[in-house]
Amino acid sequence: xxxxxxxxxxxxxxxxxxxxxxxxxxxxxxxxxxxxxxxxxxxxxxxxxxxxxxxxxxxxxxxxxxxxxxxxxxxxxxxxxxxxxxxxxxxxxxxxxxxxxxxxxxxxxxxxxxxxxxxxxxxxxxxxxxxxxxxxxxxxxxxxxxxxxxxxxxxxxxxxxxxxxxxxxxxxxxxxxxxxxxxxxxxxxxxxxxxxxxxxxxxxxxxxxxxxxxxxxxxxxxxxxxxxxxxxxxxxxxxxxxxxxxxxxxxxxxxxxxxxxxxxx
Length: 265
Fold this sequence. Notes:
Blueprint lengths: L2 H15 L4 H20 L2 H13 L6 E5 L8 H7 L2 E6 L2 H11 L5 E5 L12 E7 L8 H11 E12 L4 H10 L14 H10 E9 L16 H18 L4 H5 L3 E8 L1
Parallel strand pairs: 1-2, 1-4, 2-3, 4-5
Antiparallel strand pairs: 5-7, 6-7
């Protein structure tokens, strides 16, 4: 069995069982617990999803690939019900089984267990590839870029959302955590060089970074000010991240996550 096939099998089993060691559980608590509370309070996810829907545009004539969708991300059903043709792919049999059940009454919507880079994946000519929290799972960025180009139409769009490892604080935390990480073999948060590889290969029509200044919102709880003042300041920081990251590379690289709207050149 080839190295990538072994890795795919291991990755699929990981997401089927969600079995994590202690270090990964602690990191997940930070990411999905404290950090998600901040994101919810200042409506980070709400803004991201609204932005992505606006980037989708009119889907009625579009063939869509939902890449690495597991059992369906927050916008999978929106894509499936609004597009001309929808295909979700993932390495997890458990995830695809769950998504297939949800899609059973939607015409022209399907989900399969598939490796995006495999020669077995024959589907192409996608008008839109949606990759929410997915592109950073590919270590070989150039190979990924070539496959994205191969699978999209001449005016095809790619919408992505991935973690960044470009701010000093997050870089230090991830370096300390990585030796103990359960899923480190397929977790490659974007570095500066990664972003510039995508910028060179595609036209980045729009981008937004989140959790730059806003990632420090939790420390506002240490200040003797009202809850409304804390929330107002956190939302102000989020808005600054949202607006400034669209134009400033340095501010974008201070953020924890990045959404991109890319068009095939």
